[in-house]
Amino acid sequence: MLSGSVRHTVGMSRLAGRVRLLGHRRWFARLGRALAPVDRALGRLTRGRVVALGMRELPSMLLTTTGRRTGRPRTQPLLFAPDGDGYAVVGSNWGQPHQPAWALNLVADPLAVVTVGGRRVPVRATLAAGAERERLLGLLLAVWPAYETYRLRAGDRTLMVFRLAPSR
Fold first, then answer.
1. Where is 120: in which H helix or E strand?
2. Which domains does the chain have, with CATH numbers?
């Protein structure tokens, strides 16, 4: 798997290419989970301009969902793949055996807000299935090849893939 990832680093900064390779390591996933609150705070302070190491090669957003139990806003920093006027995201949860809370929140209430590059966009989430899921997953793997590693680590859990379309 790692050798296939090298192919995706052409035209990237050396640092971004290395980060993408490290994404396959278990310790990197643990570090990513630990740093998520810092990433979320940094994203809020910069209005979404700096998230996930601030690398242009790793498109990042803040996704704000409505908590399915609390009804309160819940914000999570995520990598995304652009898809026309929308965004593709995957509930990888770093390969953990349970679904991420934000994905379950989107299933319960598909209306959300993304903040990308300082711009807030209301969106409606659609849980992708079949050929559409595979297409979006291909876009996501081009951004972050480690999603394949996370899929394997997740065991029997199917990673949820969503398309977030502007809801204007």
1. strand 119-127
2. 2-166 (2.30.110.10)
